[in-house]
Design a protein that fits this description.
A: 267 residues; 10 helices; B: 323 residues; Rossmann fold; 2 domains; six-stranded mixed sheet; 11 helices; 31% helix; globular; disordered N terminus
């Protein structure tokens, strides 16, 4: 791993990272604020309208319980988009983007092994993802404290939630990086990485809206980030293991393919 | 040590039958060259000839289909990282991070190189890249300034071997002159320079030896002087009275006489020709100076293949004798 490269990757992303971290922190706080202020009113609406009730079950979350609200917060499209900027966009561009820009050419002219370059990028992006998941949970914890909800929450379970979230996004990062290592142009890398994210998201959301398609959720990585179950003290080790495997398999492929690839002159 | 022969310096670059295929396309075909330590070596060829493929294989960007290559005594496949530690590389049309200042980019690349940038200040001075220039973002640089920065990043750590792809592209004549001076100083310091170029006068000016490749195959590997010697010079002469007898002049061809003027081409030594025309009747004589450009174009104009080139002695390595 190259410390110089790691610092530079972080510096390049620093402004974006600060903005997104703050946005996610506010989002986490806001969700608990909404739960505290409006959950009862929403519950009344749900009782009156079965269709509305169906739409309050977004993913594996809802707005009727604090653990449901937290799960909703971690699976909301806004959060997916914000963390996806780094975990999917950043990783998909880490190699293919630098290839097309011609800057990888200059970096690999240094005594920097390709595997080292790849691992440094992975660690740099995983550290960003860790920060963002941490910011999301921190925002929720702040919201719980400021709204007087600490009695309903066991904050000691947040680190396990953080680890679960990191593994989920780590799996997407690893997949995107492997795709990036396989293409010379960022277009296909971004499309494939985004498609992988969206298909997983679609399978999770589809099952939550349509009970007949509930089985599809099992095939979604998002379904294995179960904040509600962790908060209820029912964390499933298999979820962690599965996400770990999905993180490691693309990484192993990337570490195998990237040093073997021919890097022709950028167009 | 007594009793031992002179220690021979290993070649800076050595390829043996280096071959690279892209599917059915042969980008390099059994290329065998040897670049001596401490020389400036020009690598010539038109676009698509295989120059970049060769350079990229030497630096580990590409993996050879067959054949072997060693750089500074190190194997390009197994010891690529160590090779890059000892070399400086300027890619053709270099791209640098536009958001960085010139100074930050140089510092970043020096840190990645892991060696102190001992020559940075001197190179900036010689290429007239001022402190205020270096403070500006690269995205605001002109093409020439980017190229200067590219040259500096390749040479700032004083590498044993510099591999430069079209190094003077975008440099004005004054900076080209400064760049040639840098190369000559490097050679004097025992460094090796391997550079590809389309600018033949500059190759003629600074290179010790030249390799010419076409369609991935080596056409010639000779000193510049040897290449110039094989070139046909164009001759124009004018006389009074009877035409001189030029039939016995060796190497003279394409003779065309029109009244009191004649044009011809001359290969090889000019002495016999000058002796043949030396008489009071000679009114004017022009012998165009040999240029590498002419020699280069001859390789491509007459369809001369590698089998007719300097390899005609059948050796695995190209002969370096003038033909």
């Amino acid at each position: 791993m190259s410390g110089v490269l790691l610092v530079r990757v972080w510096r390049f992303a620093s402004t974006r990272l600060v903005i997104v971290t703050l946005a996610i922190l506010v989002w986490g706080w806001l969700l608990l604020f909404f739960y505290s202020q409006f959950s009862e009113a929403i519950r009344q609406l749900a009782v009156q309208s079965p269709i509305f009730k169906q739409f309050t079950n977004f993913g594996s979350g809802n707005l009727f319980t604090i653990s449901g609200a937290i799960t909703l917060g971690t699976q909301h499209p806004l959060v997916i988009a914000l963390i996806g900027i780094f975990a999917v966009g950043g990783a998909a561009l880490a190699i293919a983007g630098e290839r097309q820009a011609g800057t990888l050419e200059v970096l690999l002219a240094r005594p920097l092994p390709r595997r080292s370059y790849l691992l440094t990028q992975l660690i740099a992006i995983l550290a960003m993802v860790a920060l963002l998941v941490g910011a999301l949970l921190s925002g929720m914890a702040i919201g719980a404290v400021t709204q007087g909800l600490t009695g309903e929450l066991d904050l000691a379970r947040f680190p396990l939630m953080w680890l679960n979230g990191l593994l989920l996004w780590g799996a997407f990062t690893s997949f995107s990086l492997a795709v990036s290592a396989s293409f010379d142009r960022p277009g296909p890398a971004i499309v494939l990485s985004l498609a992988f994210l969206l298909v997983n998201y679609f399978l999770e959301i589809l099952g939550s809206f349509w009970t007949d398609a509930k089985w599809t959720q099992e095939y979604s990585l998002f379904h294995h980030f179960q904040s509600g179950e962790i908060l209820a003290g029912k964390a499933d080790l298999l979820d962690f293991m599965l996400l770990g495997v999905v993180l490691l398999v693309p990484l192993a492929y990337a570490l195998w393919i990237f040093p073997r690839r021919d890097l022709a002159a950028p167009a | 040590m007594e009793g031992e022969g002179p220690v021979s310096t290993p070649p800076a670059i050595q390829t043996e039958g280096l071959t690279k295929h892209y599917g059915s396309v042969r980008a390099l075909n059994a290329l065998s060259i040897e670049v001596r330590t401490g020389e400036i070596f020009g690598f010539l060829g038109p676009n698509g000839a295989g120059k970049s493929t060769t350079i990229r294989t030497l630096l580990g960007y590409l993996h050879a289909t067959s054949g072997r290559a060693r750089v500074l005594g190190l194997d390009v496949e197994r010891e690529s990282v160590e090779i890059r530690r000892k070399t400086g590389y300027l890619p053709g049309g270099i791209a640098l991070y536009g958001s960085l200042s010139g100074a930050d980019a140089l510092e970043y690349l020096a840190e990645l190189q892991g060696q102190p940038a001992t020559r940075r200040e001197e190179l900036c001075e010689r290429l007239q890249l001022s402190t205020s220039d270096l403070r500006r973002r690269i995205r605001d640089y002109s093409r020439g300034m980017r190229q200067k920065l590219g040259v500096i990043q390749a040479l700032q750590h004083d590498p044993e071997l510099a591999i430069l792809d079209e190094p003077t592209e975008g440099l004005d004549p004054l900076m080209q002159h400064a760049f040639y001076g840098i190369l000559e100083d490097m050679r004097a310091a025992g460094r090796t320079i391997f550079f590809s170029s389309h600018v033949l006068p500059e190759v003629e000016r600074v290179c010790d030896r030249v390799a010419i490749i076409r369609a991935g195959e080596l056409m010639a590997l000779q000193t510049v002087d040897e290449l110039l010697a094989r070139r046909k010079r164009k001759i124009t002469l004018r006389w009074r009275g009877a035409a001189p007898d030029l039939s016995f002049v060796p190497g003279l061809a394409d003779l065309q006489v029109r009244g009191d003027r004649a044009t011809a081409t001359l290969a090889g030594e000019v002495g016999p020709f000058v002796r043949a025309v030396a008489s009071p009747a000679l009114e004017d004589l022009t012998i165009e100076p040999a240029s590498l450009e002419e020699a280069f174009l001859e390789f491509y104009a007459d369809g001369e293949g590698p089998s007719h080139g300097p390899r005609e002695n059948g050796s695995a390595k190209p002969s370096e004798e003038p033909r």
